[in-house]
Amino acid sequence: MSMAQKQALCLSHLAVIVGIGLFLTIPLLISNTPSGHDFFFHVMFSHHFTEQLWQGELYPRWMQNMNAGFGSPMFFFYAPFPYYVTSLISLPFNIDNAISHALAISASLALITSGIAAYFWLKEFTSAQFALIIALIYMVLPYHFVVEIYIRFAFAELWAFVWMPLILLFSLKIRDGKSSSILWLYN
Description:
mainly alpha
């Protein structure tokens, strides 16, 4: 198989992962108020994080306006990356109206990205077709898909499913002598 054919196959597999991910998150994307135990809290965290980020604070750690103005140390212990993604998604819109939709898009993006990460990791030691099948299974695992998105809306845990295949991928690359991959593990 030529390099062009391999790239075309990879792009078609990525398109399948994106399509399935979008299909699985249609209820989340079209709902004005997605369900999930923690959704309201993540809307609140995202709103304050985005507000402070666009006011120039590059790493908002103390949420100044939460708890009736007393603040909250939310991002002293909570991972900020998913909220950066949500902030970027909500950038072209009015913050007050777009946060819940930005969270839904970010959750959909997390599901899709987890499938892509799993695909590239699995492709290191199996065929591209089998990697696609297992990556799709990884995306629809009941806890990852149903519980994380539709029951609990555990936003940080949902994004954590992206990082594990990437950690395993870069660990494989380091083992194979590509020592520059170690830089990715420290980010």
